[in-house]
Fold this protein.
Amino acid sequence: MNAPLYTTEILRLAASIPFQQRLEAPMGSSEKRSPICGSRVTVDVDVDDEGCVSAIGMVVRACALGQASASLMASHAVGRSAAELDEARDALTAWLAGKRDTPPDWPGLDLLAPALPHSARHPSIRLAFEAVADAVRRAAGR
């Protein structure tokens, strides 16, 4: 019997996305969109003097998996550096692609394991991590 794709934990995360309002004057912003399903995530960030995320705001228009991923990203992004966010994005991409056996070292990402066999859902899951990494790079480049 197959495990359900939308577990209770995934649906809870999707229903509890933090920071669901754009920042008024962000230091960096990025919008990422999945051409496969049309999911879209916009992330705004402010960074501190060390280049770590000090504030985050988002607009998430995605399936429950994309929403759950955005919830996990936003819940743990404040205080993270560009290098940490790049590493999380790259590790998530590798895990979803089957290039690593374990989920990335980011709280809660193991909850997305039911989506591993569903490659059409992977772009939506990656969006928030791609957007936050890009937004921090843009903020650093100001």
